[in-house]
Amino acid sequence: MSDLKAKTRLTMREAAEYLGHSYSWIHTNHRVIGLGGYRIGGRWFFDMQDLDAWLHRAKANSGAKGYLPLRENKKGWVRF
After folding, report:
1. How far is Cα 26 from Cα 20, in angstroms, rounded to an integer?
2. Which tens digits make up the pLDDT trace of 17-70?
Protein backbone atom coordinates (compact mmCIF):
# COMPACT_ATOMS: atom_id res chain seq x y z
CA MET A 1 0.00 0.00 0.00
CA SER A 2 2.83 2.43 0.71
CA ASP A 3 4.14 1.96 -2.83
CA LEU A 4 0.73 2.91 -4.20
CA LYS A 5 0.78 6.29 -2.44
CA ALA A 6 3.90 7.27 -4.40
CA LYS A 7 2.21 6.68 -7.77
CA THR A 8 0.03 9.17 -9.61
CA ARG A 9 -1.65 6.68 -11.99
CA LEU A 10 -2.92 3.28 -10.88
CA THR A 11 -4.09 0.26 -12.82
CA MET A 12 -7.53 -1.10 -12.04
CA ARG A 13 -6.04 -3.83 -9.86
CA GLU A 14 -3.96 -1.27 -7.91
CA ALA A 15 -6.98 1.04 -7.58
CA ALA A 16 -8.99 -1.84 -6.14
CA GLU A 17 -6.26 -2.53 -3.60
CA TYR A 18 -6.01 1.18 -2.72
CA LEU A 19 -9.79 1.47 -2.20
CA GLY A 20 -10.00 -1.80 -0.29
CA HIS A 21 -12.30 -3.53 -2.76
CA SER A 22 -11.87 -6.55 -4.99
CA TYR A 23 -10.82 -6.22 -8.60
CA SER A 24 -14.10 -7.70 -9.80
CA TRP A 25 -16.13 -5.17 -7.79
CA ILE A 26 -14.19 -2.23 -9.24
CA HIS A 27 -14.37 -3.68 -12.75
CA THR A 28 -18.14 -4.14 -12.52
CA ASN A 29 -19.05 -0.89 -10.76
CA HIS A 30 -16.46 1.78 -11.59
CA ARG A 31 -18.74 3.56 -14.07
CA VAL A 32 -21.86 3.32 -11.90
CA ILE A 33 -20.23 4.76 -8.78
CA GLY A 34 -18.49 7.53 -10.72
CA LEU A 35 -14.81 6.60 -10.52
CA GLY A 36 -13.01 8.66 -13.13
CA GLY A 37 -11.03 6.10 -15.09
CA TYR A 38 -9.70 6.01 -18.62
CA ARG A 39 -8.43 3.38 -21.03
CA ILE A 40 -4.99 3.25 -22.57
CA GLY A 41 -4.27 0.34 -24.86
CA GLY A 42 -7.18 -1.69 -23.56
CA ARG A 43 -6.24 -1.31 -19.87
CA TRP A 44 -8.05 0.84 -17.32
CA PHE A 45 -6.14 3.44 -15.33
CA PHE A 46 -7.19 5.76 -12.51
CA ASP A 47 -5.51 8.96 -11.33
CA MET A 48 -4.70 9.00 -7.61
CA GLN A 49 -6.22 12.50 -7.34
CA ASP A 50 -9.55 11.23 -8.70
CA LEU A 51 -9.58 8.26 -6.33
CA ASP A 52 -8.88 10.48 -3.32
CA ALA A 53 -11.61 12.93 -4.39
CA TRP A 54 -14.07 10.04 -4.84
CA LEU A 55 -13.21 8.67 -1.40
CA HIS A 56 -13.71 12.10 0.14
CA ARG A 57 -17.14 12.47 -1.54
CA ALA A 58 -18.13 8.92 -0.57
CA LYS A 59 -17.25 9.50 3.08
CA ALA A 60 -19.01 12.87 3.19
CA ASN A 61 -22.22 11.58 1.58
CA SER A 62 -22.45 8.18 3.21
CA GLY A 63 -23.73 9.27 6.61
CA ALA A 64 -23.85 6.56 9.27
CA LYS A 65 -24.97 3.78 6.90
CA GLY A 66 -21.54 3.21 5.38
CA TYR A 67 -22.89 2.79 1.83
CA LEU A 68 -21.20 4.43 -1.13
CA PRO A 69 -23.38 7.05 -2.84
CA LEU A 70 -24.57 6.65 -6.40
CA ARG A 71 -24.29 9.40 -8.96
CA GLU A 72 -27.26 11.76 -8.96
CA ASN A 73 -27.94 11.26 -12.67
CA LYS A 74 -28.01 7.45 -12.44
CA LYS A 75 -31.48 5.97 -12.08
CA GLY A 76 -32.47 2.49 -11.04
CA TRP A 77 -30.96 -0.20 -8.88
CA VAL A 78 -27.31 -1.20 -8.81
CA ARG A 79 -26.30 -4.70 -7.80
CA PHE A 80 -23.20 -4.98 -5.65
Report:
1. 10
2. 998 889 998 988 888 888 888 999 999 999 999 999 888 888 877 665 555 555
Q: How far is CA 79 from CA 10, 33, 38, 70, 71, in A?
A: 25, 11, 23, 12, 14
Q: Is residue 63 within 8 Å of residue 77, measured between CB atoms? A: no
Render 1-63 in DSSP notation, one character per residue: -HHHHT-SEEEHHHHHHHHT--HHHHHHHTTTTT--EEEETTEEEEEHHHHHHHHHHHHHHHT
Look up the pTM and report it: 0.68
Amino acid identity, residue 21?
Answer: H
